Please model this.
Amino acid sequence: MLGRDGADYLSRVYFAEARCCIALISQAYDQRSWAQLERRSAQAREFSTEPGFLIPVLIDGYRPLWLLPTRIYFDLKTRTLSELVTLLIRRMVATLIEGFDKTAELVVPFVEGPRLSMHLRVTVDNESRGRRFIVWDQETPNSLHAFSKDEKEWRLIPLQANGAKQCALCTGDTLISFPESTEVIHLYDLNSNECQAYRVPRRGRYTSIYDFKLLGSQLLLAYCGGDCWLFDLNSRVFHRVCEGTDDATWTYADFDSDGNIVVGGDARGAAPLKVFCPSKSQLLRTLKSPISVNALSCSPTEGRVLIAGGTSVYAYAISLTSGEVDHRLELNSRGIEKLVCARSSPIAALISGDRHSSTLEVYSVATGIRLGRLKTGDAGEEWDECHDIAMSQDGQTIVAVRADKLIVFEKLGSA
Model:
């Protein structure tokens, strides 16, 4: 603000830029000219575009004349400061989801009937900020396509990735696939249509990949058996994060905010979560898990890992520092099909239920509150039958698979 006109600057902040205005009102409030500027700008914004933008908080019980009896306010003389903080957090987090809207229904042309739609999968190009999706059917040859959005419309583009049958992840012009043997990674250059194969230098009884994540150039692979590997897309070098066993173990893993790897699974009950330093393959700490893990995703902005079990009616947000369960999220349906957290906002999207009756839900990892249910179907339908979801890293775009369509939800203002 130094050197600027304070009245112009603050008027613009309160009228156009701020997400809300919390007015701390005391007997001296009405006597201060800057406070009056704040109030008038906030009231003008409420009148023109956004009712409820101004949040009145009474400090000493004094209620000014301009605060009408019909206005709901918070009084610190009768309620506690912790209650106010909780309400404000809920209000702020709620704005993250209330602006979402269904912006597109993209028909997938190679899907014929509901049976094949059960095998339809989607991922978001990590570099596209939610403007490019890769979609394929696990049972249909040559089904790799990209939906790409220009200024106004979505375009469907067939991908001739040298015979690739499916995709795991995509970042820019590089498509990552685990075609048949999941111990071999195929990298497809979508410009040259060239493919390079890399074998994971592991030894294990089971070869199935149960989870995979991508952060920058680092590809994380979690195998049945418990071992996890990093593959650098630039240097094309593998690095083992942690060792496994020959026991069949559903293993899930993700990157935390520091680049460490959080690993969980279902080895004979509620196995603990483990946090590894990937550069040293060193176990940093162990966290107690209340359930057998069937889904795991980290929320870097909140310093938490969100886990869910196959038949549990709850998901759990666990602090990565204290190891305590910060929140228990009650799901709409028993079980979990897919779980994903945004990396730069406290939003988590998940599919609860099973393949025959599923619900796409959105939660706040910060508060544990279910922010809403995003409807992929038409009004009056009993359930959504959502089979897969993907989300941009900034949490601004969510895409869901339903029947022969991709349902796109975008946060208003980001489209």
The chain has two domains: 6-79, 99-411.
